[in-house]
């Protein structure tokens, strides 16, 4: 049984069904996808979560190992321009989607030698990837595995667990704009580059090595394709089914209880929900209490404030993705994580815009469906930002549109309608405490060990998704599903209690 029909839950369900398990997926919402959500307003289709696919081989592997190949199900298109970056000094960089073209583009936009700096950094990042891919990203995290890695002195030096992402970048990147570009990759895990580990250098390497991809019609189609795959394999996906508890028998997971009182039995329960929600509300007992304490020691990830803009006559020649950098990136992270005072909305945040040139997501020619995102502190009425405070969300939305205009992207007179999604909205939609997108951040050298493991301390219960190992983002969530399916298979074969 799988609780939650996000990408992690559906991917795990597909793998388990392919292994001949009888699979039932229970989703409290009326649609699948979880954080890979879709909003449709007057013919405009918006992705409300991830807006690009990286490491596409992870999806290709999933579909190939559970049935028909990905190419038979979804059309992935590689973006020629991965992202347009506008820096505070007005410099504009169109980062190519092909790795071989990146150094030349950096030299042309930022000045001679910048491509060489970035190439040198990516060389180190690739080495970190080679060391960490197996033991960190594709395997269950374990003390034994970490001890084995720690004995290889050269590998430890490569990963540099004592160094932050920003600290590693400083060794290679002299241009402050390149350092700002690198800082942004920490936000892929909801983290602060000053505290996130150097191992996150693998994020820009993976993105640029395998490119940035888009699914025509929107990334929400991935979730629908996964649902279809589960059902083709004989599994059932039931929406509108609100799970309120995991049933334990003799200390092991034996099913779930629904909000209407129905109890459904299961040999295995896979929870695709935020780990804090799982251990805080769904699972009773001492083991869950210990897991809650471990999660509490980690820093929650940042959240996001979103504008969904339906535009008439959008500006021409816009790239699919663009980033308008903050004038003071450190001030942004200070505000989001509550340094130098309580957490607060960022006055002048970095603005991320997804503007797909895709006729399938708009009602007609001359219109645009834009997704605008800024980093934001989590919803915390008791000690931080109360995003439900009357007037706050709309006032902040107005401020962001004004800020975009200041940075050269003025669409204020083109907005047909807008939808505002705050961290509080995300919390309600996805049962994610505070709207923290990735559960816990990667802030601190010990963060990876505080992230909940895929095999829970409760026998028969497994965790999958962005708040569990190995972390958030589409590819890692899909990898977490593979880890869970392998664990279930291994536990079945051993004949030991799960």
UniProtKB/TrEMBL annotation:
One Pfam match: Amino_oxidase
Keywords associated with the record: Carotenoid biosynthesis, Oxidoreductase
Keyword Oxidoreductase annotated: yes
Reaction it catalyzes: all-trans-4,4'-diaponeurosporene + 2 AH2 + 2 O2 = 4,4'-diaponeurosporenal + 2 A + 3 H2O
Pathway the protein acts in: Carotenoid biosynthesis; staphyloxanthin biosynthesis; staphyloxanthin from farnesyl diphosphate: step 3/5
One function term, GO molecular function aspect: oxidoreductase activity
Domain Amine oxidase: 8-488
Cofactor(s) needed: FAD
NCBIfam families named in the record: crtI_fam (TIGR02734)
Family: Belongs to the carotenoid/retinoid oxidoreductase family. CrtP subfamily.
Protein name per UniProt: 4,4'-diaponeurosporene oxygenase
Organism: Nocardioides aquaticus
């Amino acid at each position: 049984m799988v609780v939650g029909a996000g990408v992690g839950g559906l991917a795990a369900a597909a793998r388990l069904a392919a292994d001949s398990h009888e699979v039932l997926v229970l989703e409290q919402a009326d649609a699948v996808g979880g954080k890979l959500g879709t909003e449709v307003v007057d013919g405009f289709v918006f992705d409300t979560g991830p807006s690009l696919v990286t490491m596409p081989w992870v999806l290709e592997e999933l579909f190939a190992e559970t049935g028909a190949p990905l190419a038979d199900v979804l059309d992935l298109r590689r973006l020629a321009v991965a992202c347009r970056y506008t820096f505070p000094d007005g410099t504009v960089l169109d980062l190519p989607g092909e790795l071989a073209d990146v150094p030349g583009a950096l030299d042309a936009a930022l000045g001679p030698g910048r491509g060489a700096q970035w190439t040198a950094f990516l060389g180190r990042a690739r080495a970190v990837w080679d060391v960490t891919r197996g033991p960190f990203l594709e395997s269950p995290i374990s003390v034994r595995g970490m001890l084995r890695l720690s004995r290889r002195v050269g590998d430890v030096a490569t990963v540099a667990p004592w160094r932050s992402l920003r600290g590693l970048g400083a060794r290679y990147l002299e241009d402050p704009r390149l350092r700002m570009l690198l800082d942004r990759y920490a936000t892929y895990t909801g983290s602060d580059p000053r505290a996130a580990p150097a191992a996150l250098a693998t994020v820009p390497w993976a993105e640029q090595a395998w490119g940035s991809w888009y699914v025509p019609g929107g990334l929400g189609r991935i979730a629908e394709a996964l649902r279809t795959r589960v059902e083709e394999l004989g599994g059932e996906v039931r929406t509108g089914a609100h799970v309120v508890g995991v049933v334990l028998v003799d200390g092991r997971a034996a099913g779930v209880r629904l909000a209407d009182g129905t109890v459904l039995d299961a040999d295995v329960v896979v929870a695709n929900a935020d780990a804090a929600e799982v251990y805080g509300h769904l699972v009773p007992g001492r083991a869950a209490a210990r897991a809650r304490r471990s999660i509490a020691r980690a820093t929650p990830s940042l959240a996001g404030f979103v504008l969904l803009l339906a535009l008439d006559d959008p500006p021409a020649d816009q790239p699919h993705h663009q980033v308008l950098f903050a004038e003071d990136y450190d001030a942004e992270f200070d505000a989001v994580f509550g340094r130098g005072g309580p957490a607060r909305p960022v006055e002048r945040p970095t603005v991320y815009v997804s503007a797909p040139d895709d006729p399938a997501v708009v009602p007609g020619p001359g219109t645009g469906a834009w997704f605008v995102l800024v980093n934001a502190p989590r919803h915390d009425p008791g000690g931080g930002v109360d995003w439900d405070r009357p007037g706050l969300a709309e006032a902040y939305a107005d401020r962001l549109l004004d800020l975009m205009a200041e940075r050269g992207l003025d669409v204020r007179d083109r907005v047909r309608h807008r939808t505002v999604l705050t961290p509080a909205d995300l919390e309600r939609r996805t049962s994610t405490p505070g709207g923290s997108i990735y559960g816990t951040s990667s802030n601190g050298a010990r963060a990876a060990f505080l992230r909940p493991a895929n095999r829970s301390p409760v026998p028969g219960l497994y965790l999958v998704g962005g708040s569990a190992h190995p972390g958030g983002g589409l590819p890692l969530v899909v990898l977490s599903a593979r880890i869970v399916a392998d664990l279930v298979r291994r536990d079945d074969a051993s004949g030991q209690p799960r």
